[in-house]
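[Solved] Which block belongs to which protein?

Original post:
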Amino acid sequence: QVQLVESGGGLVQAGGSLRLSCAASGIIFSIHAMDWYRQAPGNQRELVALITAGSSTNYVDSVKGRFTISRDNAKNTVYLQMNSVKPEDTAVYYCHTRSRGYEHWGQGTQVTVSS
């Protein structure tokens, strides 16, 4: 059974930093690409950042230069370092992966950026 458990969300002031973590179990973590998505109220869920099994990364334009995705295969964990956060970064952030044709999501962690 695949499980993705996010942590690290919370309330932060604009310009501040936050680090999200996602611990994965039930998969061979090192061979899977991992993603972070977010969903703000009234908006569709959007892909924020992804990291391949080979640690190549890609970001949505709105977070480039501010967010960094990374992975620790020894800990089966993927991270999202969020710097210089803005009120528009406020959303529920979800960890995601695909394994054997199935999509797997974490429960989400709320990030709220105050202005």
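(Second protein starts here: sequence line, then its structure tokens.)
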Amino acid sequence: QVQLVESGGGLVQPGGSLRLSCAASGIIFGIYAMGWYRQAPGKQRELVATIAAGGNTNYKDSVKGRFTISRDKAKKTVYLQMNSLKFEDTDIYYCTAGIGGVYENWGQGTQVTVSS
């Protein structure tokens, strides 16, 4: 059974930083692409960043230069370092795992709120 458990969300002021973590179990972590999506109420879930099994990364344009996705194979964990946070980064962030560009496994989500 695949489990993705996110942590690290919270309340932060604009310009601040947060690091999200997602611990994976029930998958062969080394062969899965991992990613972070986010979703606001009433809106579609959107890609934030992905990291392939080989380490190639992809980012939503608006987070390039501010967010960094990384993975630790030994810990079966993917991270999202978020710097220079803006009001518009407020969302629920979801961890996902997939193969071949198909993401079928999702975590429960963690709330990120950017507010002064």
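Accepted answer:
You had them paired correctly. Confirming on the second one: The chain has a mean pLDDT of 95.
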